Amino acid sequence: MSKAIVIGSGAGGSIAAMELSQAGWDVVVYEKGPNHFTNLAGPGPFGTVFSNDDLKLNVRYFAGPDPLTCPRTWRPNAQTPVQHTGAVDELPQVVGGGTTHWDAKVPRLWDIDFQTLSALGPQPGADVADWPFTYAEIAPYYDEVEELIGAQGDVAAIPDLVLKHAPRTKALPMPPGAQQYSSVTVAAGAKAMGMHPYPYPMAANTQPYNDQHICNNCGFCSGYGCPVVARPAALIPLRRALGTGRVRLVPQTMVTKVTLSGTKATGVRWIRMSDDGPVTGTESADLVVMAASGIETVRLALISEFPDQSGKLGRRLMLHAFLDGTAIFLDERMHAYRGRSITQCAEDACDPDFPGARAFAKKNGLPYIRGGIMELGGSQDPIEEGQAYTTLLAFLRPARPFGTEFKQLMRSSILRDRLAGCSLIGDDLPYLDHTVTLDPTVKDVFGLPVAQITWNEQKYEQLALQFYANVVKEMMIKAGAGAAVAVPGTDNSGGVPTGNHIMGGMMMGSDPATSVTDSYGRVHGLDNVWVADGSVFVSSGGHNPTNTIMSVALRNMRYLAGQPA
Amino acid sequence: MMTAIAAPAVAAAGCTSSSGVPAARSSRFFTDHEAAVVEAATARIAPGPSDDPAEAGHPGAREADVTGYIDTMLSMFTETGTPKVFAGGPWSNRHTSGPDMMAMFLSIDPVTKIAWNKRVGGWQRQYRTGIASLDKLAGGNFTKVSAAKQDQVLAKVAVSSFLSLLFEHTIEGLYSNPEYGGNRDLAGWKDISYPGDSQPRGYTDDEVSRSDGPDPVGKTPIVAAALKFLGAV
Known about the structure:
The complex is a heterodimer of chains A (about 575) and B (about 230).
Chain A: E1 3-7, H1 11-22, E2 26-30, E3 37-38, E4 47-48, H2 54-59, E5 72-75, E6 84-86, H3 111-114, H4 116-120, H5 135-149, H6 160-165, H7 181-192, E7 198-199, H8 235-243, E8 247-250, E9 254-261, E10 264-274, E11 277-284, E12 287-290, H9 294-303, E13 321-328, E14 344-346, H10 357-363, E15 372-378, H11 382-396, H12 404-412, E16 421-426, E17 435-443, E18 449-454, H13 459-478, E19 483-488, E20 529-531, H14 546-561
Parallel strand pairs in A: 1-2, 1-12, 2-8, 5-18, 12-20
Antiparallel strand pairs in A: 3-4, 5-6, 7-14, 9-10, 10-11, 13-16, 13-19, 14-15, 15-16, 17-18
Helix pairs in contact in A: 1-8, 1-14, 5-14, 7-13, 11-12
Chain B: H1 32-45, H2 61-64, H3 66-74, H4 110-137, H5 147-154, H6 160-175, H7 187-191, H8 205-209, H9 221-229
Helix pairs in contact in B: 3-6
């Protein structure tokens, strides 16, 4: 049988490895980062060294990559020099990829996200387009992914507006878990605003599933690896792939080039670090699937000098326009550190017909604006809380920005235990000048050029964030907050994108003149190179993207696996 | 809902045992004087009962051994055994019997080693020069001047980047898991009513969903000012 190389072991790569190996392919999976799991091949629960450890995960890059060895650069636009070198919207670099640090939210994109151009029309300055398939075509793959990795939720509680745009024919495999007090409190404010909050669909076990443990509400989800692996995600398809006996998983090894001969890939070159320096090698293959996540897949395609018939390779990078809502409750504690991080969401702001949104857009010269899903009731942990107070103290107490007042703030816990926020994941339009390119000067630890990110919020995103900042603030006050503020996420990071949602750069499409990959993710102009991660997205939608990455990869890789080798 | 979860039969690959908490240190970075300066400075940043009367009953950097946390970090490549970059997992012994698996630090891959050698080397230089600057600005010995004078020195523009580093590491030493050498006797967590790591116990559904009851925030002047800044209604 023939041999395939899969680059990356996360959401998309795990699905590719499963589909190809089950169809009889021999598969080698290269993963740049280390493996923090045991018992990958099973049976029985996965073991791990992920833990409830704020320092390890949020400060010391345990899930990597470390910006000192694998940095990126960022500039807001092509006319401005690089403004930041270091961490730029990094996804984990470990076996399991982004599905290790995620909080396992699995909402679906809407029908109008897949048919944005035909349903909603163009937007000035943006490259709005339709996906090469509809919601109806991808819906069964969403069902299958939910069943594969195990998702919880209550279809009966999903509001009509959501079911209208993302219809479901099946129940989710598991019922919702315990609802966080913080989430329910903010959701009450959403209801008071006429919105329709409901239990956030999540791929975390509330019942024994896939031989894995039940989530025990430890509270360390977003940004952390799960210590009991109750949200195994990519590990499930990886286990199925390994179970065929045809798959070799190679961690701590980075593919540095896809080697091409004419229109065919012949294999890859790789590099790994040893204590004595870098070690390099090659691997030949009949097929290469790229799933290193949006930015890294584009970087590798550029280093490998892929053909670029449409001129869109590395363009249309979408990172979501986040709105950070802070709601502080003065009379009681919200204890958002208990339970699955954020158990309620509202999708009303995904609707271009949200009350007042059309009129606001028209007044400002745009045909429409859209926000995104609201995550209701999240907070942060003490180290991040402390860092937030240092910023506040520098502003409020410049003469002595430390001391007992720092400790009084920590004990008041207005930015942790009394915080129940709202994060809105705003629709980010595709722009041709939002790009991943190779940085001309900065290199990684192996001497390869790093990804240079050119991205900022444009008029559409700015207006949507402005409109929804008022909505979110009013919602939080109606929920009982004694202080409430909502600002774009980039206001808190000096402009640098930090949302960890990476989409676009290798957009799918049926026409090689206007897209980078074909209707199933094969690179136009190359016979045997496919893409199975977020880079194939045509639009961003306003939702957590991981289950869409997995569902699209499942559709495309199943098609590929059915092709003659 | 509680679920019985057996501790893994073996620690994951890459674990090596260390001497536990608190560890007997095989090497130190700071000289005695440097350690004394860091202890004095971090005690101004996060004072305890002996540093500020307002903090009676509230342990600070000194009590949590923030200096021990920082020195452990700066010595990670000179102490014997596994460099203390990443504490082990999946849990400690705070909510279950058995060994503290967080005390078994994880071996690090070669790329991580390169990054942390670079990072720690940079911090070592910043501490050496930063401590010398504090002494100089205090007229020779930072530890021998009054608390008020120490505050004035720390607020000087000349040491602002060192203050930022000290503050960052003070926060880490107070509120990180105690296996890293700070947060002694969980002093940091207790002072802010934070339970810390919760595995393998987790929380019951009731603990997740219920209100803990009324608990009005104490509006000290700084809390009131922060609330005003953050959009007080």
